[in-house]
Specification:
302 residues, alpha+beta, 5-stranded antiparallel β-sheet, 4-stranded mixed β-sheet, 26% helix, binds uridine-diphosphate-2(N-acetylglucosaminyl) butyric acid
Amino acid sequence: MRISDQPIAAKLAALGVELSPGVAMTEKTSLGIGGTTDLLVLRKFETIPEIMRLLAADGIPHRFLGGGSNVLIDDGELSWVALHLPTSKPGMSIEGNTATVDAAADLGGMVTFCAKNDLGGMEGLIGVPGSVGGALRMNAGAYGTQIGPFVKEVQLYRAASGQIEFLRGDDIRFDYRHTSFAPDDLMLRVKLELPSIPFKEILAGIKICNEKRRSSQPLNQKSAGCIFKNPPGRSTGRMIDELQLKGHHVGDATVSDRHANFFVNAGSARCADMLALIDDVREKVHAAHGIELETEVIIWKN
Ligand code: EPU
C-alpha cells in the first residue's frame, strides 16, 4: 500500500514519521519472504496515538512490524502499511536489578547488555532472533527460559484505548509462546527485574546455550525459527523428522535437514510456497498422530 496523498504524508512527517516508500518485506524478515509496502518509522512515542488516529481517519490499514523474525508475509503489493520503531541506538539502562529497555532493541543485544552489568537469568534467550518487543508479545523462550517471568512493567500503545499505557508484569498473562496482549498492542518499552549474577557465570551459561543451538538448528539459513508450536508433551520437530520429511519442499520452501520444525527459504521461496508446505506437513502429522499443529509463526495475509 502506498501513501501517495501529499497532505497525509506531510501530516505524518510533522508527527515525526519517517516514510520509506515501497519497501520489500524480503529485506525486513528473517525468512526473506514478503511483498512490498510503505514503511513508516515512528520516531516519537508521544505522537503514536495521533498517528494512529490519522491512519484510521484516512482509512490506511497498518501492521506493527518488529524484528521480522517470526512472521510470514504475503506476496505482492500488500494492502497495509508497515509501522516500525527506530532500531538504531535503542535505549537500555540499569538501575539496581531493574533493566529498562526499548522494545525495538535486539533481544540478544539486551541479554548481553544486562550480562555486562551482572544481571542474568536470560541466558537461554541469547540466540533467539528478533526484537525485545517481539519477544514480549509471544513470550519468547528457549532452553527452559522465557522472558515473561522477568517482566516488571511494560509501556505500550493500546489500540483499544488509543492511549499509551503502562501494564504491570503481574497483570499480563505469559503462557507458552502466548500472552494476554491484544494483537494490535504495540510494545514500546519494558522494565525487567533480573537476578544479580557475576558476568563470568552468565557468560558460561550463554556459551552453553549458543553451542546447543548451533548443534541443532539451521542458523545460517533463512527461517522464522520453529514454524509450529510444540503440542503439550510432544516435540513437533521429532514428529516431522520421524515422518522423514526433512528436505521435503514446495518450491524453495523447505523442511530443514537440521531441525524438522524449521522451514527454511532455500532460495527465492514465496509466501504461497511456505503456506503450501505448512498445510502439507500439518496434514501429514494429523494423519499420522491425530494432532492438529498450531503455527508459531504469525501469518499476515493480504
Ligand atoms: N528432534 C528430532 N529431529 C528434529 C528436531 C528435533 O528428533 O529434526 C528431537 C531432538 O533430538 C530432541 C527433541 O526432538 O530430542 C526436542 O528438540 P529440541 O531440543 O530441538 O527442541 P524443540 O522442542 O524442537 C524447542 C523450541 C525452540 C527452542 C528449543 C530449545 C518450540 C516450538 N521450539 O524446540 O524454540 O530453541 O526448544 O529450547 O517450542 C522457536 O520457538 O522458534 C524455537 C526455535
